[in-house]
Write a structure and sequence with these properties.
Blueprint lengths: L18 H7 L3 E2 L13 E2 L6 H26 L6 H50 L11 H5 L11
Antiparallel strand pairs: 1-2
């Protein structure tokens, strides 16, 4: 029995490692040997550069949402004769719509928090940069330099 190769590049040996090579050869996908930003180890599409697994998951979500929308429209446009199934479907749709609304609100809040953190981090970086720029410069150590920059009046003039 063959064991899977631990080297990610060995997982898809028939695919090119770069997008440019795959495009030049006329392939639809390539495998760079790295995980996508969501952590999938899968080939990527040459046309858009997106991970195939991410695209599959998005397609499933989109299909489920479209099916739900078709069902919702069918129920809402059906006759006024209500059956138990129709009532349950309407309740289910209402719950799903409420859940979707809550998800959108949470995502919005998360985005706002992320923006606030980024702004705070940038502000702190800028303040640290300004503080570093305002560090006092060392006083020169050559003879007589202390009396030139000194604000203490010892009674002697620096030109004497």
């Amino acid at each position: 029995m063959n064991t899977p190769c631990l080297n990610p590049k060995g997982l898809f040996p028939d695919l090119f490692a770069t997008r440019e090579l795959a495009r030049a050869a006329g392939h639809r996908s390539y495998f760079p040997g790295e995980t996508c930003r969501k952590g999938h180890v899968a080939p990527r599409m040459v046309l858009v550069g997106t991970c195939c697994e991410c695209m599959r998951i998005d397609d499933e979500k989109r299909a489920a949402k479209a099916a739900l929308e078709r069902k919702r429209k069918r129920i809402l446009t059906s006759s006024n004769t209500f059956t138990t199934e129709t009532v349950r479907d309407k309740e289910r749709i209402a719950k799903l719509e409420a859940r979707d609304k809550l998800k959108k609100e949470k995502a919005k809040q998360k985005g706002l928090e992320k923006r606030r953190e980024t702004l705070a981090r940038k502000k702190a970086d800028k303040e640290a940069e300004l503080a570093a720029a305002m560090v006092p410069q060392p006083v020169p150590s050559w003879p007589g330099a202390g009396s030139l920059g000194s604000s203490v009046d010892d009674g002697s003039a620096p030109w004497d």
